[in-house]
Amino acid sequence: MDLFEYQGKQYFARYDIPVSAGDVALTVDEAVAAAEGAGYPVVVKAQVQVGGRGKAGGIKLAADADEVRLHAGNILGMDIKGHVVERLWVEHASDIEEEYYASFTLDRAAKKHLLMLSAQGGVEIEAVAESDPEAIVKLHIDPVDGLDRATARQAAVDAKLPERALDGAADILVKLYRCFTEGDCDLAEINPLILKPTGEVHALDAKVSLDSNAAFRHPEWEAYAATEVLDDREQLAKRNGLQYIGLEGSVGIIANGAGLAMSTLDVVNQVGGTAANFLDIGGGANADVMAAALEVINFDQAVKSIFINIFGGITRGEEVAKGIVEALGRVELRAPIVIRLDGTNAEEGRRILADAGIPESRLRSEPTMLDAARAAVALAGQN
Ligand code: GDP
Ligand code: MN
């Protein structure tokens, strides 16, 4: 779950990371009230989950209430890379001497946490990685050892931060690492991390992505769920209790088990197609679950064919087949289905599908995952 900047800053504050005082505003009047609270000068910031807000005109300094009105009025409703601004964050403006970059992520291949630190902040880190990769210090951290202050300070030295920023940066890195680990983040990024003329180091932006699987130990995350940005398909899937992620392609995917669902996306790509979604219906693929899954896929106008990929273990083939037949009676599908049904009671399942009298143009069965992927991609007109 991705957080808005203001939520990320609230999360940082829990771990004692210095951020500016401010408030959220949904209207111009609220923006003025927030500015009065924060103290002028302020910065008015568009709250959208996309980078480069500054360049797009979504971040403006304001010296008084009139300027806040002007900028808040312009930024509210603004479209930034397809995200419409509905919320502002107004905070006390900071004086900036230098801008740095700091982040923690998980490096799955290395099975370690990864600190990235650069003296070149305030620009997209991908651009720095391209133009001057040497300027990014990458430090792997063994989760068992954690990150101590001396190591954090050395990373700041290696990143060529100036002497007077070292202690402040080390302090924030240790706190940010705690936020990342104890706070169960997938990503905790500060860009820019600034040095003020006073010598203080301070988080001017916040990009935080929370690991939703850890939600059970974070009751405080409920507030974030209320503002979670989901597209219409994802909202429908959530209401139906499905593990669904919307993608941009045209082959709708239904699979049982997250691993199989991901492999299904890979195979569809391998044969030249693109998946419209990830959808894991889990172990109990009964008619209700199947109907809900087909309803969500059918709702997506981009879907041109549907690939149902089931490998029965605990899930039984005949139940899946019955579920599909019953679901087809409930949902009027726009796109044809290709199914690969294998594993426990697969033969019986295929017989049920064959006996149901569904025309071949609406549902066809293929013996392997690869064959089914090819057929689904061909039906989607992608190959
Ligand atoms: P992003 O463009 O979406 O990453 O938004 P940021 O929050 O990182 O802000 C972009 C840029 O706006 C920063 O790199 C700063 O240069 C500038 N900026 C943001 N807040 C302030 C502030 O309080 N004071 C000053 N002087 N500049 C700011
Ligand atoms: Mn930024």
Report on this model:
- There is one protein chain.
- It is elongated, with a radius of gyration of 25 Å.
- The protein contains 13 helices and 18 strands.
- Strands 7, 8, 9, 10, 11 and 12 form a six-stranded antiparallel sheet that branches. Strands 1-6-2-3 form a four-stranded antiparallel sheet, covered by helices on one side. The chain has a four-stranded parallel sheet with strand order 14-16-17-18, sandwiched between helices.
- Strand 7 and strand 8 form a beta hairpin.
- The chain is an alpha+beta fold and 383 residues long.
- It has three domains: 21-92, 2-Layer Sandwich (Dna Ligase, domain 1); 98-220, D-amino Acid Aminotransferase, Chain A, domain 1; 232-379, Rossmann fold, CATH 3.40.50.
- 36% of the residues lie in helices and 25% in strands.
- The mean pLDDT is 94.
- The chain binds guanosine-5'-diphosphate and manganese (II) ion.
- Guanosine-5'-diphosphate binds at residues 43, 51-54, 59, 93-94, 96, 99, 122, 191-192, 204-205.
